[in-house]
Amino acid sequence: MLHANEIPVNEAVVQSLVQSQRPDWASLPLSPAGAGTDNVMYRLGDDLLVRLPRTTAKARSLSKERTWLPRLGPLLTHQVPEPVYAGTPAPEFPLPWSIYRWIDATEVDANSVQDWATFGTELATFVHELHNIDLMGASRADELSWYRGGSLKDCEEDISTYFDDCRTITDNGLDVHALEQLWRAALRLPEPPSPHVWLHGDLRPANLLAAKGRLHAVIDFGCLSVGSPAAEHAPVWDLPEPARQAYWNAMNLDDLTWAHARAWAIAVGIAGLSYYRSTWPAFATECRTRLGTILKDAATR
């Protein structure tokens, strides 16, 4: 349980949901397929994935994915999730839930990718394609107004609180003061003059899948939004340096955008370290590693 208001779910609950709402799939084998900060997942048979939101707030992204993924997917080179069933609330699970096509690929890490420079270029291709898709009448409003597509200044108060908390952690091995200096330096910069575009919103490695050493799919569009693109580039600090450099080169990012992207990477990392250090230590470690990479990278630029 990662959140105070989380709805508990287990295999028996999922089996019951499938039995009552999709009895034609009830005989398919069911097994855990991982979990993230927003959702818990189960594989259903060979070809399906059941995805259940952890909280009421996280459930709001489901209708957004059902609306936009069928429109965006055909315009992208790399595979994205395909919704196939919209589950409805039930006594055993009082939130909407979804079933998607299973994507046969592996989470991106050192075992699934060897040529990181090529991978960085491929990720840039995906981002470039997504950002250049027509907005089709969508605008930065309601469920498409994820905070990472806005201004750094909009979350200054929250991030300052997370910095204060992280300064009390004596074993984080980070120069929190130096990170905050980088963050506040970016706050003083003008916003990059970029038009609003489609944003994935959370391109961390856990949401990237590889096959045969190449980028194969991008998953979890729960943070899909419309906004300014600087924050989209932030997760490249989760990737090895050759991927980061290749991504920068392929995207042709200017120094102002890069500084804002780095600030977003710091903001998300410091928030994750503060929020999840007790409930999900592995994720907090991921955030700590990202922040350490940012400090090392900043020292060489």
TrEMBL record:
GO terms for molecular function: transferase activity. Keywords: Transferase. Its EC number is 2.7.-.-. It is an enzyme of class 2 (transferase). SUPFAM superfamilies: Protein kinase-like (PK-like) (SSF56112). Residues 31-247 form the Aminoglycoside phosphotransferase domain. Pfam families: APH. This is Aminoglycoside phosphotransferase family protein. It comes from Lentzea miocenica.
